[in-house]
Design goal:
two-stranded antiparallel sheet; elongated; Ubiquitin-like (UB roll); 8 strands; alpha/beta; 275 residues
Length: 275
């Protein structure tokens, strides 16, 4: 994905699409500012011979006030090159599906303003994941790590009956509140150099998810001890080198490094013996 990779410019007149077709139904389009932005978008398609060698395509996109990177990508796909492939869903920073590598940093496309970035804006798939096509990466390894921490509520004992609530103190809710924000976007794990070199390392997202349940007082002491064992085993928290890269790129402002360090402290205390 270096600057030496092949580049080509995509222009609307060569795309085969006519945005001025009078028969096309009107849509809710934000008024353009009359200005444009230049995007360099990573392209790769293993099924198309001309795109099997990865490179970059250059797009010039008309901008509007409040335009996000996701808006710009949709404009490029809909008006210039319908083969451009990327993931998106809610467009509200909740689904996490549009995590990308934008100007050298992991970001959500729907939360990143075009006006705040230097041109040309370079958009690439998340690093350290196999590329499926263009900006789409294979997330299977990430999901496997998340499942490895058993990310579900699992109390020691069930409630006495179906109508009995399992209460949580306000103090404990505050302890776990930030960890519950995770949207499984994978930006933090992509930024982690240890996760990129160690396929088996849980990574910051999975450890944070484990922390969310480990620190929840409603599960009970026995389950907390089991979760601590999972999180501190060889491929868990002790692989973290405290680089803070995961915390820096998290779109939900989760203090991931802090949670990892808390697990390390608790694991150390659990191993102490006084006699």
């Amino acid at each position: 994905m270096s600057d030496s990779d092949a580049d080509r410019t995509i222009r609307p007149e060569t795309s085969g699409l006519n945005s001025e077709d009078p028969e096309e139904p009107e849509s809710d389009v934000t008024e353009s500012t009359g200005e444009t932005v230049t995007l360099r978008i990573f392209r790769y398609d293993p099924e198309v011979e001309s795109k099997q060698d990865a490179g970059f395509d250059t797009f010039r996109i008309p901008t509007h006030e409040g335009m996000t990177i996701l808006d710009a990508l949709i404009e490029a796909r809909d008006e210039q090159d319908p083969s451009l492939t990327f993931r998106h869903s809610c467009r509200q920073g909740v689904c996490g599906s549009d995590a990308l590598f934008i100007n050298g940093s992991q970001r959500l496309g729907c939360k990143t303003q075009v006006s705040e970035l230097k041109e040309p804006i370079q958009i690439e798939p998340l690093p350290h994941h196999p590329v499926v096509k263009d900006l789409v990466v294979d997330m299977d390894s990430f999901y496997e790590r998340m499942r490895a921490v058993e990310p579900y509520f699992d109390p020691d004992d069930p409630p006495p009956d179906e109508l009995t609530e399992r209460y949580q103190s306000r103090e404990n809710r505050e302890d776990v509140k930030l960890s519950t924000r995770c949207i499984w976007c994978g930006a933090c794990t992509s930024s982690c150099t240890i996760a990129s070199n160690e396929d088996v390392y849980l990574g910051p997202a999975a450890i944070n998810k484990g922390y969310r349940f480990y620190a929840d007082e409603r599960e009970g002491e026995d389950r907390a001890e089991e979760r601590l064992e999972i999180l501190q085993e060889h491929d868990g928290v002790w692989r973290c080198q405290t680089q803070f890269s995961c915390t820096n790129v998290c779109p939900q402002d989760i203090p991931l490094t802090e949670h990892i360090q808390q697990i390390k402290r608790d694991a150390t205390k659990a191993d102490l013996r006084f006699w």
